[in-house]
Amino acid sequence: MDQPEGRYHYQLMRRALETIDTAETPLSLEELAGEMQMSPAHFQRVFSAWVGVSPKRYQQYLQLGEAKRLLNERFTTLETAQTVGLSGGGRLHDLFLRWEAMSPGEFAKKGEGLTINYGWFDTPFGETLVMGTERGICGMGFAEEMGREACFDDLTQRWPKADFNEAPEALSGWLKAGIEAKGETALHLMGAPFQIKVWEALLQVPSGHVTTYGEIANAIGSPKAVRAVGTAVGRNPVSWLIPCHRALRKSGALGGYHWGLPVKRALLAWEAAREEA
Question: Quick one: pLDDT band at residue 84, thresholds 50, 70, 90?
Fold first, then answer.
């Protein structure tokens, strides 16, 4: 596919983000569209289709200070969030997320005897690699910043003894439900017990909201393990659906992001804008 819609929109957002960051003052619609080499009307349409708000409004969500605003106004206290078991589910808009975790014994086998299907898909954040077992999606990574080969190697090396089978049709229904936030999707959490606790906590953070690494540490009963929590957040294999991008530093800094900070900023901005639109 040449320039599929999802990748085109993400690349446009990335260019817009870079333009906004280097501008000394906020840009008008005409100025921003000119930088993108598009007519104002076309640029406005693309923006609205992607995020549902005007380019002027969206610029506010891309500013570096937006993370601090989210912490002040949309901070989620996980200790008071609804507690669910690993075999339970959580509701996000009209999406029902169903998840289960592999046992420690299964994890120790590094995927031996397991068949993992995979496929490449176009999403609002560019080309995305999705992997899954018969029990649910177990991997999801963004290729736009690091490239296809690095993205594929990154996920497959997590389960080095598994058999990988290209079968996008086995995953498309789950992914479509996740992207549209409608219907039901299944997740298969494949990690060490501590990582599973952290990822389960992340699933409690609503779209358009954020939390901190320290808050996650408190929620899982390990208040002194903030650094270890940060490592587990970074090792989350199911990006977006397990929303590691919603974890920020206590200072309001974005922190790191495995698939690139431009993707993290775009994810937060997209969700916050849609939540408030």
Answer: very low
For this structure, is 151 an active site residue?
no
Question: For helices 66-73 and 261-276, what crossing angle results, to 10°?
Answer: 50
Asked if residue 272 lies in contact with residue 61, where contact means CB atoms within 8 angstroms, the answer is yes
Distance CA 201, CA 220 (A): 7
Give the C-alpha separation, 47 to 41, whole Å. Answer: 10
Q: Are 275 and 52 in contact (CB under 8 A)?
A: no
Angle at 186 between CA 142 and CA 67, to 5 degrees: 45
The Cα 203–Cα 205 span in angstroms is 6
pLDDT, position 236: 94
Q: What pLDDT digit, counting tens, does each position of 263-275 carry?
A: 888 888 778 777 7
Question: Distance of alpha carbon 251 from its chain centroid, rounded?
Answer: 21
Query: Whole-prediction pTM value?
Result: 0.77
Choosing from 131, 244, 254, 267, the catalytic residue is: 244
> Three-class SS of residue 215?
helix
22, 64 Cβ separation under 8 angstroms: no
HSE toward the beta carbon, residue 222, CA cutoff 13 A:
16
Between strands 163-166 and 115-123, the pairing is parallel
Tell me which H or E stretch contains 92.
Answer: strand 89-92
| CA-to-CA separations, 52 to 102, 185, 272, in angstroms, rounded | 38, 24, 11
